[in-house]
Amino acid sequence: MSVAKKQYKRVTTKSLVDMKANGQKISMLTAYDFTMAKILDGAGIDVILVGDSASNVMAGHETTLPITLDQMIYHASSVVRGIERSLVVVDLPFGSYQSDPKEALRSAIRIMKESGGHAVKLEGGKEIKESIKRILNAGIPVMGHLGLTPQSIYKFGTYTVRAKEEEEADKLLEDALLLEKIGCFAIVLEKVPAKLAKKVAESISIPVIGIGAGGGVDGQVLVTHDMLGMTHEFNPRFLRRYLDLYADMTSAFQQYNADVKSKDFPNESEQY
Question: Is the dihedral of CA 69, 176, 172, 134 positive or negative?
């Protein structure tokens, strides 16, 4: 007999750990503004990620590297004002935590104080352990991020699948165990083999949320603009497009343009 899944009035870091323990999958999508956040929250999405992917989809940069801490705080503030239930996780941007644990803490504190976000996310494992520990010691929840880490794109040189070789796979598992041990409440695994991702999820008690990491993990995340089909150049295997808004929006804009040019808009009923 199936057991009814608990509905959370407000999703917290503890909620996510409980969801994993209960076998309840976690849904996570990105948002960068009030309107999108309000829609996602109302739709029941568990976690809203204010991702540094805003650098790509909102600002048009080729990578996530250019976005600043001030810009992330602006986006996160907008998102927080639109939610009632979802947990809001905010990416620490490139350059705000890698070199100095004290700088990492200052960055995390600014995000929490100035945006009202609920947690921060950092890319990396052992190499940023001290930064994560410093942030956790201040009482700020941390979500880890392993596998393909876009902030390190120039180090990798490619967005290809990570941890296909045994040595890198072993390090990824070691890093996941380390992140759990030092106190992270969840981990994102990006673009790693499904078999490895499943092994990681089964090896730790905190939730593993995948993007291009198969179905054996505890939850899934996608970039909202991608799954809505607002972007159309990006076509990885893991992306399921639930709408084709690029085509629908283009058609609507073209129709509006035509109606204005032809003086069809506004008509008699659309004016005072």
Answer: positive
